[in-house]
Amino acid sequence: MSGPIRALHVDDDPDSTDLTATFLERENERLDVVSETSAEDGLRRLAETDIDCVVSDYDMPGRTGIDFLNAVREEYPDLPFILFTGKGSEEVAADAISAGATDYIQKETSTSQFTVLANRITNTVEQYRARRQSERANRRRRQTLTRITDGFVEMNAEFTVTDVNEQTVALTGLAREELIGKNYRDDIVAGQPNTAFAEYKRVLETGEMRTIEARSDINPNRWVEERIFPTEDGDGLYIYFQDITERKRRERELEAQTRRLQGVLDSVQAALWMRDTDSNLVLLNQNFRELFGIENERDAIGKRVDEVFDEARAAQFRAIDERVLSTGEPLEREDEVETTRGTRVHLVRVTPIFDDDGAVFATVGAAVDITARKERERTLTALHEAAQKIEQSSDEGMVYETLVETAENVLNFDLVAVDVRRGEYLIQEAWKLNSRDAEFFERTSLEANETFAARAYNRQETIVIDDLRATEVTPAVPDYRSVMTVPIGTFGTFQAVFSEVGAFDDSDQEFAELLVDHARVKLAQLDSAADADREQ
C-alpha cells in the first residue's frame, strides 16, 4: 500500500491547480496530481482515469464543492474526498461532513498548507486501500464460513468431553483422541486460565443458556464466541463455538478509527452526532456534548435518546429519526435549544446513512448555531417597519419620536436622544431615558465642539466611544461609559448611551445608521415641502 497515489484536484482557478500540483508533488514523490477546473470535467476525469483521492475547492461556478461531492458519491461512494477551500464556515464544514467528505481543510496563505494536504491525502488513501483489502478478505472469509458449521462439544455433568465434531478438531488444533474422554478442566486446559469454566458451571446450575465472548482456554491467543446450552436431561452441556479473533481485531481497529474520527469531529464547530435505527447514540462530538450539557461521552454513547434527554427532546429526536429512516431523505429544520447561554437557534440537518445493500442503518446530524443570523433578520424586519412608519410621518416630531422609540424597542438601546440644530446649537428634541438619574445636555454649542454630539455633527460622521473615562470629554452623567453618536445630515444628531464599557458593536452601528438614514431622507422631504409652501 506504499505505491504511487494519483490525486484529482478540481478548482476553477487554473493558477491554484498548477500551484497545488507543484507543491504536492514536491512534498511527496508518491503523489501524481491531475487537475481540472470544473466539476463536470472532474467527473469526466474520474470516469476515464483511476483516481485514488479527490481534492476539491468549494466556491466554483455551476456546482459548488458540495454539489461535486454529492455527484462523486453517487458513483464512487467510498472514494476519499477532501474539501480544500478558502471559504471557511461552520455551515460549509457541517455540510461537507454530512455529505460524506473524508476531510475538510481550509486554505491558508502559507505553503505549509500543502504539507498538511499532502499528509492528509497520503493517510486517507492508505486507510482507504487498507479498508478495501480488509473488506475483500472479510468477504472471502464470510463465504468460507457459510460452508461450514461451528465447532461443537458435548460434556457430561463432570465436564468430561463425550463428543466433538470435525470443526472442533480444526479450530482447537487437538485430535479427537486428545478431546473425547478427557476432563475439560483437569486434562484439556490444565494450567490455563479456564475463563469459560465458571460459565459452564452456571449453565448446569441454572439450566439457562449463556453466550460468552472470551479468549480461548485452549488457544489463549485466539478469541471465541461460545453458546452454552444444557442438555435435554440437564446432566450435561452442548457447546457451540466459533473463532472470532478476526472480528475482535476489526473491533479494535474500529475503536482506533473511532478515536481518530472523534478527533476530527471535535475540531468541527458544529454539533455533530450519529444515531442508529433504534435512536441509540453512536457518535457525538464535543460541541454536541456542550450544547446539551453532557459531561462525558460515556454518559450518552450506546444509550437511547430516552435515557439521555428529557421526554420532549427525546420525542423530538425520535420523530426526526423516524422520518429520515422512513423516507431515506435528508431533513433540514430550524430548532430552538435551551442551553447554558439561553435559548439558541440552530439549523439542523439530519442525513440517512446507507449500507452496501441500500438499507438505512443510521442517521447523521449536524446543528449549526444561527442565533445571530436570526436576530439580525428580526432586527432588519423591525427596522423596515420603522422605516415605513417614518415615511408616513407628517411632521418632524413624528420622525424624531419614531427614531427614539425604535432605538429603544428594536435596537434595545437604554438611553437615546435626538438633538436638532437650532442656529449654532444642538437642542434636545426627543429622548428616552430608562433611569431617573439619566440626563442629556439640553443645549450643545456647535462652535465649542466640546461634546461628541457636536463633533459628530461637524464632521458628519458616526462617533463610537467604548469608554468615556478614557477621553477628555465630560459626560452629562458620570456613570455614562459608552456612547454612539450618528449625524442626521444637517438636521441634528442621534445619540445612544450605556453605563457599560464597550456596549456598541459593529451591528449596533450598522442598524443605527440605517435607521437614522431613513429619518434623514424623510426630514429632507418635509423640509422641501415646507420651503415650497412658503414660496407660495
Keywords:
single chain; 536 residues; alpha+beta; Rossmann fold; Beta-Lactamase; 6-stranded antiparallel β-sheet; 5-stranded parallel β-sheet; 16 helices; 25% strand; PAS-assoc_C; HTR-like protein
Shape: elongated
Stretches where pLDDT falls below 50 for ≥5 residues? 144-148, 434-438
How much is the radius of gyration in Å?
Answer: 36 Å
The CATH homologous superfamily of the largest domain is called GAF domain
CATH architecture of the largest domain: 2-Layer Sandwich
Mean pLDDT: 86
- Per the CATH scheme, the topology name of the largest domain is Beta-Lactamase
- How far apart are the termini? 93 Å
Number of helices: 16
Total of domains? 4
Tell me roughly what share of residues is in helical segments.
Answer: 40-55%
Within the largest sheet, what's the order of strands? Answer: 18-17-16-21-20-19
Beta-strand percentage range = 25-35%
